[in-house]
């Protein structure tokens, strides 16, 4: 397999886009690293328990970081040997672990304690855009929760902005597939069981309702303005 064909295979898996999105994000000397949180594990209680936050961040996210670094090293080694078939076979691992690292990094930034910047509703230009594209914030929230509920198995629901039209849309992604292409992820909610099960068990709809109390709309608004 030629180098150009290998790159095409990677792009089809979304791995190259994920890699570009990750550039400069939680990396030290070419290696992905687990980002520090701007709040304590218990700061999002009672909506997300300290135990869930500790496991989710220090164990699950760390697993994606480790997997991403291993995939990048293996791909670089295969490319150096000219073994593009081997390198291409690793594209799904790059997509999964790279997407997992990117998605979770964005997710932690999406959250803030309810006593500080978490919860409520957005204001300014973001509020106007949500009202223009969804009718009202409450309609948007309900549609987002419906999208989350409709995810079969594991995945994410995102509020995203189209770079060309500027319109907002709700999109879902399976497993750890990142939001790429013309869409810029603004705010995501993790629908994997590890994000809620220890606290909410099979009552995931309660988790989907509770998390709105700790959404950091200031961060979402900043992403919206930059997109």
TrEMBL record:
Binding site for Mn(2+): 56, 104, 190, 194
Pfam families hit by this protein: Sod_Fe_C, Sod_Fe_N
One GO CC term, this protein: mitochondrion
Cofactor (UniProt): Mn(2+)
Reaction(s) catalysed (UniProt annotation): 2 superoxide + 2 H(+) = H2O2 + O2
InterPro entries the record matches: Fe/Mn_Superoxide_Dismutase (IPR050265), Mn/Fe_SOD (IPR001189), Mn/Fe_SOD_BS (IPR019833), Mn/Fe_SOD_C (IPR019832), Mn/Fe_SOD_N (IPR019831), Mn/Fe_SOD_N_sf (IPR036324), SOD_C_sf (IPR036314)
EC number: 1.15.1.1
Gene Ontology MF terms: manganese ion binding; superoxide dismutase activity
Gene3D superfamilies: Fe,Mn superoxide dismutase (SOD) domain, Iron/manganese superoxide dismutase, C-terminal domain
Domain Manganese/iron superoxide dismutase N-terminal, residue spans: 33-112
All residue ranges annotated as the Manganese/iron superoxide dismutase C-terminal domain in the record: 122-223
Superkingdom of the organism of origin: Eukaryota
Keyword set, alphabetical order: Antioxidant, Manganese, Metal-binding, Oxidoreductase
Role summary: Destroys radicals which are normally produced within the cells and which are toxic to biological systems.
Family label: Belongs to the iron/manganese superoxide dismutase family.
Record-given protein name: Superoxide dismutase
